[in-house]
Amino acid sequence: MFKKYRFWGIAAALVLALTLAACGGGSEEESSDGSGDSADSGDSGDSSGSESVELGESELTIPYVAWAGAIARTPLVKQTLEEVGYTVETSQVDAGSMWTSVASDDASFMTASWLPATHQSYQEQYGEDVEVIGEFVAQAPLGMTVPSYMDVSAIEDLKGNEELGEATDWTITGIDPGAGVMQSTQDAIDTYGLENWELQSSSEGAMLSELQSAIENEEPIIVPGWKPHWKFAEMDLKMLEDPEEVYGGEGDRIEAVAHTSFKEDSPAAYEVIQRLTEDYDTEMENELLVAINDGGEPADVASQFLEDNPDLLEKWTEGLGE
Description:
This protein is an alpha/beta fold. The chain contains 15 helices and 10 strands. It has 2 domains: 59-140 and 252-317, 3-Layer(aba) Sandwich (D-Maltodextrin-Binding Protein, domain 2), CATH 3.40.190.10; 142-239, 3-Layer(aba) Sandwich (D-Maltodextrin-Binding Protein, domain 2), CATH 3.40.190.
């Protein structure tokens, strides 16, 4: 019975094929090279939106440091990833823990790698286990920073400067002790022979509070500084010249760095980061930083940015996820 049906089915298919060939004229030649086949043409056409890149591992963790730039960009990355179907947890940690968790694959990726200078020691320790997956900012200069009204222009001007030392209690007001810029500042103290000076650890928030207070009273203060940061837009500051390039010369790159397995584990997330970082730059970060400094919650600022820029969100997420 089944053989009989199969015979008549094959015969019918042959008749249909001969009929189409006779009616189609020149289409027989086109079909011989596959160009007239709708399935083939779908595979070879524009793939945007036609085939989704899979989520893979859908639960992601992003560790970040409590620095202004990381606080601004991390919610933007998180919310974009959530748009394509990921569940994203962010965790505020120190720089050492950030690198350790990514290198051990306990966390997915970081948004605040500063290379080649600031995080050089971490890169040397964990470089074989991680890879750069995108660049947020191409040049992010760092250096000892002072209010512009202070009569110093270079780091070496601090050496043996009794008047300034006594006015500041020979203290450079720093941030969290695990930060790369703190290590660079300690290296600068050693390189420039600033034996009388001491680097005081605190947090970025505490440092900024002391900086603002000093400026309001037009008092001297020295802090580690970096760009992009809202303080350079809101306060009249200058970085001290660093001829020995202890802080890395023209500046570090701020990059997204992931474990080497990240692309395979979460392919759509990898693609999101690559797309997002192609557009992200200092101007975009400054826009987020200023909005946050004006009182906006970082998550709300990120949401508003994505709402105001639907074309970017579509570009970053099209064809990705389930």
